[in-house]
Amino acid sequence: MDAPVYRVAPEGERFASIADALHAIEREQQDPASPVAIHLAPGTYRECAEIRRPNLTLQGESAVSTRIVSDRGAFETMVDGTARGTFRTYAVLVDAPGCTIRNLTIANEAGDGRRAGQAVALYADGDRFVCDSCEILGHQDTLFLGPLPPKEMKPGGFRGPKERSPRTMTRQYFRRCRIEGDVDFIFGSACAYFDGCEIRSLARDAEPAGYVTASSTPAGEPYGFVFHGCSFTGLAADRSVYLGRPWREYAKCALVSCWLGPHIKPEGWYLWGRPEDDLSFVAVGLVGPGSTDLSWPGCAHLLGEGDLPRFARSKVLAGSDGWDPLSGPDEPCETERLSSTGRTVHETRYLADDEALARAFDRESRRARFTGADAASWQEWSANSRQRLSDLLGLDLMEASPAEPRCTSRTRLAGGIGRILYELPTEPDVWMPVYLLVPDHPRLDGAGRSLAVICPHGHQGAGAASVAGIMGVPAVDDAIRRFNYDYGLRLAELGYVAVCPEARGWGARRSWKGQGDAEELYLRGTCLNEARMVEPLGRTLLGEFVFDLEQLVSWLSGQAWISTDELSCIGFSGGGMQTLYLAALDARIRKVLISGYLYGEKDSLLRLNGNCSCNYVPGLWRLFDMGDIASLICPRPLIVESADHDHLMGSRGLVNVEEQVDIVRTGYRLCGAEGRLKYQVIPGEHHFGIDRLEADCAWLDAASRRRI
Questions:
Q1: What backbone phi and psi angles, to 5 degrees, belong to 135?
Q2: CA distance 335 to 470
Q3: In the chain, what's the furthest Cα-to-Cα distance?
Q4: For a disulfide at 260, which of 86, 288, 364, 459, Cβ 3.0-4.6 Å?
């Protein structure tokens, strides 16, 4: 049975605040241990959220759009005249086992600790706690990982919600989060595992500029803080920040396969006068500019590769009940390949099509040049050339290559998913990287073949990396948190074989002008450059996208284990554009979800006139609007999804989309397939409605079986 969901929004929902939803849950849910969820609509929630119910999930629409904010600092004076203190400053308190926080920003905006005092954003003191795809922001003492130590150093130092509670050890898991601050901004006594997170030190005009961690691991505990595949980035000056210091006499911290920025001090750890025999700071597999010239103290050690199994997620968090929040192997992370910024991958081998296009230009250009010798020949050539220039050329100009892909990597993901990276030839000398995410137990059709979904990517997400859910690249994680971009990985987790192709001009296919490690280059493609090269050859970039996808469909159709009778295509934003055109032109696509793209060309492409050049096809507007193109999908099942504040809709907003959907409805009505078209609106800015994905897939599967 699905957990009940309580939806919160500043207006238009039953609950206007998190507190209202929490009170309603206590009144209405009789079993205090049964799972329950709170979903927050986009917005900023300036309230103190206190979660004291086990197995509760608090989820935002996306981490960038949904924020819970406090501005309370420890130096603030309370009504009784005392200082507020550290442990009453939080924006969110988690004081129950089995809770999850996802897709949220949790921030304390009190400011610099020298003026405001310590200021906690998230106070987590519950066992089996999961924090996924969140941003936790502050300055000093941003993230507290309970329990509290046994005794405070000064009377009243622990004043707050847990000062008199038993000190019960907790296990906490942070995945794909950004945690930001300056002094001791990750502190406490928990056994905490940070997986593929960005740990970001702010600039601070002091020496030292800060300390990342302040652990107080209880004596005898095997693990304290473990950072796996994390990037320690920073705005602070070079060699100005310690990795940590012990908050109490006992402290443990381990860094596994982590990237350290130049702001990290060579000394690494400040001992704060504690006995070295009681401290354990270890690392294995460090990379990055902060990992060189180390001069760590005697209680800090660099370990060998043979020590890696000691710090596996399943071992660190197992406890007495074998808890593993993901199950399966540790997530593979890309920290070894990160560039000097620590936020992008340094590509050493590009698969761009620059040279192939140059050869195509040599073959194809000037075939209709003037070869005559007199005025009459010139007049005849001019008339014919005007006509020929008016003709639109498309997919038939491209030459398909035999479908003989090469496999470049295989790896295992958590949750029983295999990830395979292929390079598929689509034209001579043109290769398309394709991630296949294959569940161990896939959904099957009636003939026992795996259900598959093609997942084209859009813009601002580093190509297929975000859709495939690549871990440990902060720039990709930003895109996933902002847009819910990892829908390929989410589909694989639902049991579908997710096929995530890389479009021309993206990722490893970037042309020469967009190659490099800069974040702007890495996240964005070279569509404009590609279009400028192909259009004078009579091609269009969008035509090349579709051509490559059709070659992918042909390859999949040759795989006996794939259900080609139920092949789906799901795409968001620019991936929605590719999905629209592929499904309209290729009847082998049987089920379709287009998110964040179907809107009228006049408002969204002509008037805005700032969209990527891949949207623009010469002569298209004289023939079709997007609703006409989408009508060609009829009668196959189709979901159209729009966010109600998506800026790409233009000045008229949803009206612009609804006009196009009405055009599509006409075709479905004439075909007697009204039940195979669904239009849905989600709240917020431009993003994919990830929490509806499972229901949408079920609807598409059911609609495909519905007779017309």
A1: -115, 125
A2: 11
A3: 103
A4: 288
* Phi, psi (deg, nearest 5) at residue 574: -60, -25
Burial class (CB in 10 A: 0-12, 13-18, 19+), 694: middle
Residue 243 has pLDDT above 90, yes or no: yes
The arithmetic mean of pLDDT across residues 410-426, rounded, is 95
| Domain definitions of the chain by residue range | 408-705
- Please state which architecture CATH assigns to domain 408-705: 3-Layer(aba) Sandwich (3.40)
Q: Are strands 171-175 and 5-8 parallel, antiparallel or unpaired?
A: unpaired
d(CA 122, CA 112): 17
Taking alpha carbons only, the member of 698, 702, 701, 682 closest to residue 690 is 682
111 Cβ contact list (under 8 Å, min separation 6): 73, 119, 139
SS3 120: coil
Question: Can you tell me the mean pLDDT for 86-105?
Answer: 98
Contact 317, 325 (CB under 8 A): yes
Interacting residues of 533 by C-beta distance below 8 A, sequence separation 6+:
354, 357, 361, 511
CB 281 within 8 A of CB 246: no
Reported for 321-326, long-range contacts at CB under 8 A and 24+ positions apart, including other chains, are 323/128, 323/171, 325/128, 325/130, 325/173, 325/175, 326/175, 326/414, 326/415
- List phi, psi (to 5°) of 485: -80, -10
Which residue, 80, 76, 25, is CA-closest to 53? Answer: 25
Element (H, E) at 467: helix 464-467
Burial of 214-228, coded b for 16+ CB within 10 Å and e otherwise, reads bbbbbeeeebbbbbb
- Residue 243, H or E segment: strand 241-246
Q: Which residue has the higher pLDDT, 132 or 621?
A: 132
In order of 269, 309, 665, 677, the CA distances from 302 in angstroms are: 13, 15, 64, 59
pLDDT attached to residue 353: 83
**What is the model's pTM?**
0.90
Separation of alpha carbons 537 and 540, rounded Å: 9
Say how many residues make up the chain. 708
In degrees to the nearest 10, what's the CA dihedral of 571, 573, 576, 581?
-140
What pLDDT, on a 0 to 100 scale, did the predictor assign at position 32?
A: 85
- Sign of the torsion angle spanned by Cα atoms 335, 340, 345, 349: negative
3-state secondary structure of 228: strand
Place of tokens 């709240």: 683
